[in-house]
């Protein structure tokens, strides 16, 4: 099936041709010519050419997803999907917080996040090597390392292609030596193999799942508009030869998108023609059975003007999550009496704070904020509660066309520091359709004080999200992503 996407930017018409063959998700690259003086973020006045990569994200619960195939998607009801998403969300938040406290107390590097336990939330196709070999990987804004299942396998995961990356079949594969910067700066402890001279890594996640192997570099290939190949050389990745089998069903590896130096956008930003920006448009939770979400590396074709700054963790600088400054929350037209310090990062141990994260499904608030949001939402949304743990579900069988579904609004610091900007959760972001007819479940759950709070992918759905890393800000615009 072929699809043609036409997006208009100020002074330029951009055509991106995307070719999708059945369940395969091809990454396509388009070239965007920007006029000098364009108002786009991070435009380089000295260069009028910006590269833009386009790909598709497939949700783990999509029928074509290799993760859903590994987890018998067709036997899961919508209620089971919500329950599973809740468990994954709580586990992920718990691990974020453990990571913060581990790093702040001891300085020991454990792992970036529990990003892919259970297969992650989104996957996409990547092409690696010369000639290219094709793989399905988890992609995630809360993780840094790029790694693939590689030959020779000591213990390889049961993966999407059932064929690990074979370095012997690639002329562009380079094994990092112990003195290479790729080894000495790798975001996890490495060891020098005296016998082979290779740089070995071991990378453990929060549930004790892991990947280990050799630090290497390779050519990642994308497809240009005219159908020609567009290779990008010297991408550092972990060539994994030993992985825990149960933790990564259906995928061949992981591509991290966080702020660390080894994430894929950070590496692409060093390539001539690329700006350190990525964006995506996620389809709503209930729409994952029929569509793909779109994703771009490079300057987006958008007129987004609403941005909030990205912050680092002042106590634990090694953390590379997308922290933002929330100043308050409203439900409908009611501004909640939640002290602003509730959303702050602790100056003592770096705990708390709130992040945008594509790898967490539901939205997580510490108890004090959650109780205030839930109580006011129930005041305005007067329907019977049919389930109360770990998330709230409402019986809306008596809803009519005139029923009001109150929005929930996160007020965030603006880039200018003046009036706050609003990130609005609409009905599709707040209420998830259960299996039972007439039952909707709240997409917000409570976590303990000190836990990292999360604006998850259900909140971000039907928003065009722009992570302008070059200018340290996140932007958004409400739209239709399906």
TrEMBL record:
The entry's keywords: Aspartyl protease, Glycoprotein, Hydrolase, Protease
Q: Which Pfam families match?
A: TAXi_C, TAXi_N
Recorded superkingdom: Eukaryota
PROSITE patterns named among the record's database cross-references: PEPTIDASE_A1 (PS51767)
CDD domains, alphabetized: pepsin_A_like_plant (cd05476)
The protein's matches in SUPFAM superfamilies, at most eight in alphabetical order, are given as: Acid proteases
- Tell me where in this chain the Peptidase A1 domain is found: 122-477
Q: Which PANTHER family match?
A: ASPARTIC PROTEINASE CDR1-LIKE (PTHR47967:SF128), OS07G0603500 PROTEIN-RELATED (PTHR47967)
Q: What family does the entry list?
A: Belongs to the peptidase A1 family.
What's the name of the protein? Answer: Peptidase A1 domain-containing protein
- Origin species, per record, is Sphagnum troendelagicum
